[in-house]
Amino acid sequence: SQQGEEDPQALSIQEGENATMNCSYKTSINNLQWYRQNSGRGLVHLILIRSNEREKHSGRLRVTLDTSKKSSSLLITASRAADTASYFCATDASGSNYKLTFGKGTLLTVNP
Amino acid sequence: DAGITQSPRHKVTETGTPVTLRCHQTENHRYMYWYRQDPGHGLRLIHYSYGVKDTDKGEVSDGYSVSRSKTEDFLLTLESATSSQTSVYFCATQGNYGYTFGSGTRLTVV
What we know:
- The structure holds two protein chains of two kinds.
- By secondary structure, chain A is mainly β.
- Chain A contains no helices and eleven strands.
- The mean pLDDT of chain A is 93.
């Protein structure tokens, strides 16, 4: 079963614009993670936010977590063509023994 | 994908044949995972391992078995391949801050 669900499924923006992707999940979590996947490649870990954190930054990435709404958002600022990829949220549910459950992803296209 | 190697990268096999995919890590990570990725389904967990000879099922384990005889190696076996097992298979390990993924194995069952 999908724990995390990303929204939108696809997003197309111009270089320099900001991109926001959302993730909703169903059960209590230890942490939530975001991954990027370039076409034909494996997933790359971007950022982890723990259940007791509300916001985290890493370079041009900003992640928020609202455990009361069971939702998270990933903001990429000043996007570049190289940011074109699929982005997945993944939840480490409480009691899951470190198993991550992934959403179906958001396909981000950044046009030059 | 430093530290994790999947082999083979591509394989075409016939229905009914057994297939083994290999994942090798040099990170000395305790936890290892096998996922499959299909359009419209995202990544789904097949099996995982929490130590040598310690494995457990994920959400789509039917038709698959795994073995882990050494920390470095985690094998996924399709006991009798079916067309529904055509997919891209990813191995991952649990590090300090998240998963590290291999480059994937694209398996086609004809």
